């Protein structure tokens, strides 16, 4: 969602250019408006406006702001419209404290009323502004930043990570259920939503825990304590990601770069596992009476496949539950339950909430994440990392196949090798499917100029891929797309089929093949244009993307999703959509 960044230097380097760069790197998190505040000789200077980082920097010249200490923000609006006033940073009445915030302050209305009565004037409609005024009140009463921070966090309810800047060149930050990480470099300290905010300058990071407050100043360094004021020790760790992983390289967009990276990431998601964690993960799957798998969006699609594969090979019931629906379905969770939570970011609020509810009911928590330092990784009993490197494109691509590969590897191991999953062979097959990229591009150009409705059909393991393909087409290309079990056509959706409709059919030669071909006949008879994704050709297909024949049906989802990702990417370009930053969406959805 929003990104926050704060920088304190002790070498008199100007921070504004770095703040702008950091925000650009984290822009994928949310991006309707942007702002900076720096400390100057005459007070706190604030510049903010609506647009992307490059646009706002262009018209406000953010990078030229003076100052050695500063904060910055990219906003994805929740409370208050997308306006210059609502953009962060927000300042207190006396303009000597400025704040950037990610999260939601649930009790902001009552706090705003209370603060207004005591003489505070609000300049925005945001929930965030109450933090600036609370800090002002407590700081001016006590003269202590530490006390002001403790009092402020004791009054606000909801989820937050915020950085406050004080006129004495100090930054103070706090977190509860939103990510916040401190980067430590020679001559500067960073407080950021994401390591990408400072990876260019340092790989040394302190990941703050929930209920941590940190005060950073150029002379005393970093002081960390909890909301009760007790000192806590958080040691720096080395960030595993390389900066090069966060660049586009030779590709036009992150999305297509990340699609192509799947040649390697399927392998790396499996091979880099720590043996102890892998064993514990498998034991907790095997020991459970009931396994529930949860996730959101693409990660939920992984949960669907994981549940089918887990039930098949471990001979116990695996239940997939959408994370946003989890809280309504918790009655049967107990200490014999294992919850597997799957998330690229490890920060999705719905997933974290599901985990909390399951934990309270006594369940064991396993997680599969791509961000090893994420909140989800830290609250799980055992966490495995998909090791895909940073995924910047808003649409999940390499993290999805990384999740699938890791699910297969763990179930394979837990079942005593019944799957015989070979990640290297799967990677090689994916590399072969990627060779269809130019063919997909040509099909989009030649045959899909005016497509409004796309349906995707599949049965069994291929149904979640139909859902995933539809999600990619919606979010990347803004095209109405629906994934459905092919067998359900005759129960209603067949009424939608006509010559204007495109139907993608996921139909490799496994046990679903003949039945799905029957469904293809049904849509063909209604005039729909059919694009087959299969290892077997058929005259019924108007176009076809051939995938290799695989020994096991569980490998097909890894292959089928690749052309669907590439179709979505090229449809996005055709519709003039920036595939990396689709409208209204954020990579990491940290609100419920
Ligand atoms: C996928 O393309 C989406 N952008 C979105 O559905 C995403 O998968 C979902 O928000 C879950 O994110 P997570 O994996 O980081 O938890």
Side-by-side strand order of the widest sheet: 3-2-4-1-10-9-11-14
Q: Point out poorly predicted stretches.
A: none
What would you call the shape? globular
CATH architecture of the domain at 3-240: 4-Layer Sandwich
Helix and strand composition category: alpha/beta
Bound molecules: 2-deoxy-2-amino glucitol-6-phosphate
CATH class of the domain at 3-240: Alpha Beta
Average predicted confidence as pLDDT: 94
Helical content band: 25-40%
CATH homologous superfamily placement of the domain at 3-240: Aminohydrolase, N-terminal nucleophile (Ntn) domain
Largest beta-sheet details = 8 strands, antiparallel
Distance between termini? 11 Å
As for the CATH topology of the domain at 3-240, it is: Glutamine Phosphoribosylpyrophosphate, subunit 1, domain 1
How many beta strands in the DSSP annotation?
A: 24
Question: Compute the gyration radius: what is it?
Answer: 25 Å
Strand share of the residues?
A: 15-25%
* Annotation field: number of helices: 17
């Amino acid at each position: 969602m929003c990104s926050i960044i704060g920088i304190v230097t002790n070498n008199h380097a100007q921070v504004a250019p770095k703040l702008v760069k950091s925000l650009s790197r984290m822009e994928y998190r949310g991006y309707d408006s942007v702002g900076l505040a720096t400390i100057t000789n005459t007070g706190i200077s604030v510049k903010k406006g609506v647009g992307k980082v490059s646009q706002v920097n262009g018209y406000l010249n953010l990078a030229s702001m003076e100052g050695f200490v500063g904060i910055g923000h990219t906003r994805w609006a929740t409370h208050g419209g997308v306006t210059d006033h609502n953009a962060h940073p927000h300042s207190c009445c006396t303009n000597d404290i400025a704040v950037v915030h990610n999260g939601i302050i649930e009790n902001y209305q009552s706090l705003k009323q209370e603060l207004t009565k005591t003489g505070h004037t609000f300049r925005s409609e945001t929930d965030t502004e109450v933090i600036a005024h609370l800090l002002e009140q407590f700081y001016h009463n006590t003269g202590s930043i530490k006390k002001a921070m403790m009092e402020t966090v004791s009054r606000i309810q909801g989820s937050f990570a915020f950085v406050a800047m004080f006129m004495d060149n100090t930054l103070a930050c706090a977190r509860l259920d939103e990510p916040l990480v401190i980067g430590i470099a020679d001559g500067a300290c960073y407080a950021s939503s994401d390591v990408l905010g400072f990876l260019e300058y340092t790989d040394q990071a302190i990941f703050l825990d929930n209920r941590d407050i940190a005060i950073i100043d150029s002379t005393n360094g970093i002081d960390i304590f909890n909301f009760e004021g007790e000192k806590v020790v958080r040691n720096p760790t080395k960030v595993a990601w390389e900066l090069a992983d966060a660049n586009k390289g030779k590709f036009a967009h992150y999305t297509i770069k990340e699609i192509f990276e799947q040649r390697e990431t399927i392998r790396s998601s499996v091979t880099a596992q720590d043996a102890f964690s892998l064993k514990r993960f498998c034991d907790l799957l095997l020991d459970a009476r009931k396994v529930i798998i949860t996730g959101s969006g693409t990660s939920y699609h992984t949960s669907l496949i994981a549940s089918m594969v887990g039930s098949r090979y471990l001979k116990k019931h695996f239940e997939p539950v959408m994370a946003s629906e989890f809280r309504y379905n918790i009655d049967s969770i107990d200490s014999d339950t294992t919850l597997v939570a799957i998330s690229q970011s490890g920060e999705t609020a719905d997933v974290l909430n599901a985990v909390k509810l399951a934990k309270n009911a006594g369940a064991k928590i396993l997680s599969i994440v791509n961000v090893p330092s994420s909140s989800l990784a830290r609250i799980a009993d055992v966490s495995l990392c998909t090791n895909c490197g940073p995924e910047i494109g808003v649409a999940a691509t390499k993290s999805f196949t990384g999740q699938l590969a890791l699910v297969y590897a763990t179930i394979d191991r837990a079942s005593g090798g019944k799957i015989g999953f070979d990640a290297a062979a799967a990677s090689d097959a994916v590399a072969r499917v990627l060779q269809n990229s130019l063919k997909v591009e040509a099909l989009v150009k030649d045959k899909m100029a005016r497509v409004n409705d796309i349906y995707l059909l599949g049965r069994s393991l291929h149904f979640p891929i139909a859902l995933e393909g539809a999600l990619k087409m919606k979010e990347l290309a803004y095209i109405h797309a629906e994934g459905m079990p092919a067998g359900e056509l005759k129960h209603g959706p067949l009424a939608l089929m006509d010559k204007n409709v495109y139907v993608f059919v996921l139909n490799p030669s496994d046990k679903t093949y003949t039945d799905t071909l029957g469904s293809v006949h049904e849509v063909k008879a209604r005039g729909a244009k059919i694009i087959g994704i299969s290892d077997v050709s058929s005259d019924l297909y108007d176009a076809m993307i051939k995938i290799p024949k695989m020994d096991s049906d569980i490998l097909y989802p890894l292959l089928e999703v690749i052309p669907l990702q590439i179709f979505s990417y090229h449809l996005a370009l055709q519709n003039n959509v920036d595939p990396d930053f689709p409208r209204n969406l954020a990579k990491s959805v940290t609100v419920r």
